[in-house]
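Look at one such:
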Amino acid sequence: MTHNALPEFQALAEQTGLPLPPLLAQLLASGQTHYGPDWASTWRERSLQGSPAFISWDDFEWQCAEDARTTISDWLNPADQAGRRFLPFGESGAGDAFCLTPLDDGRLGVAMVWHDD
């Protein structure tokens, strides 16, 4: 069964006012960002199959929408970031957040926001 995280992240995108890029939306809809409850026992086989996406990236883990929502409310909300908006979608092993964020020229970019700064 495929885990479609797109609706949950679309709600977060609307909340933050940041659009989901097409590739990220496709990955969320396809289940390629979900580790699943059996991850501890199947990670080797799934890694060879390339699931979840970007599994070979060093120090990157997909974040579920619930965790992204908590990250936003706890420390990435605009009131705590001088008005800057973020939409987290992944994290490092240390808890740093990979986020969508608006760039100064109006385009959408990706930033790593350190959790302890």
Residues 6 and 24 are 9 Å apart (CA to CA). The chain has a mean pLDDT of 90. The longest strand covers residues 97-102. The radius of gyration is 14 Å.
